[in-house]
Amino acid sequence: MTTATGSRERRDQIVRLATETGLASVDELSRMFGVTASTIRRDLARLTAEGRLARTYGGAIAVTAHPESSLRQRIGEDFHAKQAIARWAATQIQAGETILLDAGSTVGALAHELRHADLLTVATTGLTALLELADVETVHVECLGGTLRPLSQGFVGPLTEAALERMTFDRVFLGTDGINADGGICEADLRQTRLKELMARRATQVYVLAHAAKLNHSPFHAWARLPLPWTLVTDAHADPDFLDTLRTHGIHVVVATHQPPGAADRPATDG
């Protein structure tokens, strides 16, 4: 296959094949499609950048059985839980602070909550947060540019990392695709996990915003380890036993409760 259409078809077949088998090597794919190993590596690099595959260090590719959904698809998922998480997170931010916002739908919901903030500096790697705050005169916005991942609508890569080194933050709010029992956070792309680790090191207070469906969930093969202590902010559907396990690893846990319209404010629970 040498045409653009043939290349797209080959990449689509690679995704289908590896999703079914779970693991495929460069050599296997090269033989199967009758192309060079370098052609396959270019295919894999493009598929990884698009978030359709996750690469391993050994030259093989590990493809999740749970393909990464786009930000547009995720925005409507667990809406009330994300809203409760975002509202609690917004209460932690004080006027005059400098904060860092990750990409993602829940962090984007937090950005929406900050539209009425006073004298705030917000740096972000996410287009959602950037668009939410672009017209807010009382919020100074810094965009940490870099390579845009279309699926997550977030910037990654060396330019983003270089920009991070020039700032420090009072608080950072991170999103994630999954959290396992020992407190690791999961993403579809190794560039994302590296960036999250760097973001966490630049902030005094670290929060991970994740609704219950993302807990004890490992959909991808790229992981980040955050410096302790950090705070998980989740919702009332979270498994209490799993939250207790996270606490044993030194992670602070906050359970944010959704407030129906007109309900009196009730505090979130924590432990």
TrEMBL record:
Pfam families: DeoRC, HTH_DeoR. Keywords: Transcription, Transcription regulation. SMART domains: DeoRC, HTH_DEOR. Residues 7-62 form the HTH deoR-type domain. One of its GO terms (molecular function) is DNA-binding transcription factor activity. This is Transcriptional regulator, DeoR family.
